[in-house]
Amino acid sequence: MNEMREPLLQIENLSTHFHMFKGTVKAVDGVSFSLNQGEILGVVGESGSGKSVTSFSIIGLVDEPGEVKADKIIFDGKDLTALSEQDMMKIRGKDISMIFQDPMTSLNPLYTIGKQLEEVLLLHDKQMSKEARHARCVELLKMVGVPNAEERLKAYPHQFSGGMRQRVIIAIALAANPKLVIADEPTTALDVTIQAQILRLMKQLVREQGSSLILITHDLAVVSETVDRIIVMYCGKIVEEGTVDQVIHHPAHPYTKGLQDSVPKLRVQQARLDYIPGMVPSMFDLPSGCLFAPRCKYCTPECHRTFPEKHDLGGGHYVACIHALRDDESSMPGRDA
Ligand code: ADP
Ligand code: MG
Fold first, then answer.
1. Which of 243, 250, 239 is nearest to 296 (CA)?
2. Rounded to the nearest 5°, which phi and psi values hold at 330?
3. How many helices (H) and strands (E) does the chain have?
4. Could you tell me the pLDDT band of residue 188, with boundaries at 50, 70 and 90?
5. How many Å lie between the centroid of ligand 2 and the Cα of residue 101?
6. Which end of the chain is more exposed for a tag (fewer CB within 10 A), N or C?
7. CA neighbor of 163 nearest in space, from 189, 137, 140
8. Is a pLDDT exceeding 60 seen at residue 267?
9. Distance (Å, rounded) from C-alpha 192 to C-alpha 134?
């Protein structure tokens, strides 16, 4: 029983820095979070906030000039920071699989869908008979809602629509029954209706398989209906963490609030979309103190001094903003929702 409560993934103090000619880019800086078995975690932030680098760091896919440091990356009881590249390769694709934004680059245009699905199955279960493999491929395609699965196995990637290709990618990602799926902007290239279908499908399938999911996106609307918990990243750091209700409905960080205001509200006529003023600072020239301070309308002189500690707002809700600590509601940006 106790064993079941162990988190599947536990990351402590992860920093991934790129040492460049111009200086050091702290793409990920002191990030800690954990993920429970069967949990769906959303990682949200504007482009360049370190979401992808975080996931590449977990699965050991950061190359030179990148340097990954972490006190701990525990996955399923194993410390990934101590594994050899060979052992990491076994974990990737089997225990952890990834889904990327562009399904065309994840599929090989020269091979049929069936061949590519079969390859994953072969990689992880060499004992499986040819017939059993074929049956499993058909089953997988059916599972992700590809019509005429038997026939479609013989088709090539370019013969599928964008949405259908992303379904195939999901089938490949789930083929080996991974414990963890990391989906990096999996629906960004798709139109809104298809996006919603694919997200619903992914959620349903990981729930059925009992897998955990990390869903990375720059779009707060994407996570709100799909995930259990959210972490918000800005310039390589986590600025807020909590449940969907806490982060979406009661955001405590001005950045989260800003992200939320920039989501177009359906059914509500808006003269103009709110957006967060200012730009993400250059990663070579990060401000001292709170990294969001230069763009923050609640900023006070103390915000420029030191990076705010992670404050516990209770119930698993954390925020790195000194103004969110105050009891006075009016000084708590975002508490007016
Ligand atoms: P996100 O996925 O949130 O859009 P990324 O994780 O891709 O952002 O990138 C975070 C930061 O790290 C960015 O400033 C990006 O330019 C930098 N970065 C990512 N990969 C590399 C690399 N291979 N070399 C140098 N800088 C990189
Ligand atoms: Mg990215």
1. 239
2. -70, -25
3. 12, 13
4. confident
5. 9
6. N
7. 189
8. no
9. 33
Q: Which amino acid is at 219?
A: D
Q: Say what the pLDDT of residue 131 is.
A: 94
Atom of ligand 1 nearest to the CA of 233: 3
Spacing, Cα 48 to ligand 1 middle (Å) = 6
In short, whether 235's Cβ falls inside 6 Å of ligand 1 is no
- End-to-end CA distance of the chain, in Å? 39
- 147 — phi, psi (to 5°)? -70, 155
Where does the pLDDT of residue 327 fall: very low under 50, low under 70, confident under 90, or very high at 90 and above? very low
Which ligand 1 atom sits nearest the alpha carbon of residue 20?
25
Q: Whose CA is nearest to atom 8 of ligand 1?
A: 48
CA atoms within 13 A on the CB side of 303: 19
pTM for the predicted model, two decimal places: 0.90
Q: Which residue has tokens 């789930």?
A: 174
Tokens of 279: 């730009």
CA-nearest residue, atom 24 of ligand 1:
18
Please name every residue paired with 69 in a beta bridge, in sequence order, or none if there are none: 15
Q: Which of 31, 52, 63 to mutate to test the pocket of ligand 1 (most atoms within 8 A of CB)?
A: 52
Residues in the chain: 337
State residue 319 phi and psi, 5-degree precision. Answer: -145, 145
Q: Identify whether the C-beta of residue 100 lies closer than 8 Å to the C-beta of residue 81.
A: no
Place of tokens 């006190």: 71
Return d(Cα 89, Cα 8) in angstroms, integer: 18
Ligand 1 atom 26: the closest Cα is on which residue? Answer: 18
Beta bridge partners of 43: 216, 231
